[in-house]
Design a protein that fits this description.
Aminopeptidase, elongated
């Protein structure tokens, strides 16, 4: 693209990249305020490869970025954004093409991403690039409440989940992401298990599996550990959705999971 240079995201400092991330999501349906600490967490938790990720530069200004996560044969788009003054000029398309090349070079066979269902412009771009719709995912939230969590070792809970899960975990809750998390807590009741983390007083459910009623019992206990509980990117139709709804939970975001086969 004339006048636009693509560089490795590793050429920017944490502070510079965090500022670009924030600016690139300004005005979106779900704007993000990304600090350098948050960027370091995202990089570690989701295996973002700074060397393979790309930023777009015009003159002296950074105008866009795309983050690429890598795990063996699978890659993941951990955020694509362009600053408001450079949108609708093809910058996002060029960034995506560049990380597809980087993924191929590093041996990836598939690239995954999630996109909010309301973001029709981005969905159209991804489809034009060859991405296929896989399934719809939901971000659930549940207010804190009374309960009696039955804690166990996180590895014990995870082992139970691995043998009882009925669907592939999305990238941010996959086993690779779980392995990168610190301070995880296991919860276990007869017929269900979960692995959670409590961050700043909020409960993040990283993985869970089980039958409806046991999952409801488990989530009733989990919600008592913080002021609110969140389940990120739960597949539509998952047993936990019934339990969350029964407890008064709500869907905050709906996303389309997509994959490009390289």
């Amino acid at each position: 693209m004339e006048g636009v240079e693509l560089r490795s995201a590793a050429t920017l400092s944490d502070d510079e990249l965090a500022a670009l991330f924030t600016a690139a999501y300004e005005g979106y349906e779900r704007p993000m305020q990304v600090t350098a600490d948050a960027l370091r967490f995202l990089t570690r938790a989701y295996d973002l490869d700074r060397g393979a990720s790309r930023v777009a530069i015009r003159g002296r200004d950074a105008i866009g970025l795309v983050n690429l996560g890598l795990r063996g044969a699978d890659a993941w788009i951990g955020g694509l954004g362009v600053v408001s003054t450079a949108r609708r000029q093809g910058v996002g398309r060029v960034l995506m093409a560049a990380v597809h090349d980087e993924a191929r070079v590093r041996g990836a066979e598939r690239v995954w991403l999630e996109c909010m269902v309301e973001n029709t412009q981005a969905l159209t771009l991804y489809e034009e690039l060859g991405y296929e719709n896989v399934r719809e995912l939901e971000v659930w939230s549940l207010d804190g409440g009374q309960g009696h969590p039955e804690e166990c070792d996180a590895e014990v809970a995870h082992a139970w989940i691995r043998t009882h899960r009925t669907a592939r975990e999305p990238w941010q809750r996959a086993d690779g992401s779980l392995a990168n998390q610190d301070g995880t807590i296991g919860l276990r009741v007869e017929g269900a298990a979960a692995v959670i983390a409590v961050v700043a007083g909020r409960v993040a459910v990283l993985q869970l599996a089980g039958e409806r009623e046991p999952v409801r019992e488990l989530l009733t206990g989990a919600r008592s550990l913080g002021t609110a509980l969140t389940v990120l990117n739960l597949p539509v139709g998952h047993e936990a959705a019934w339990a969350l709804r029964a407890l008064g939970g709500r869907v905050e975001v709906r996303q389309q999971e997509m994959v490009l086969r390289l």
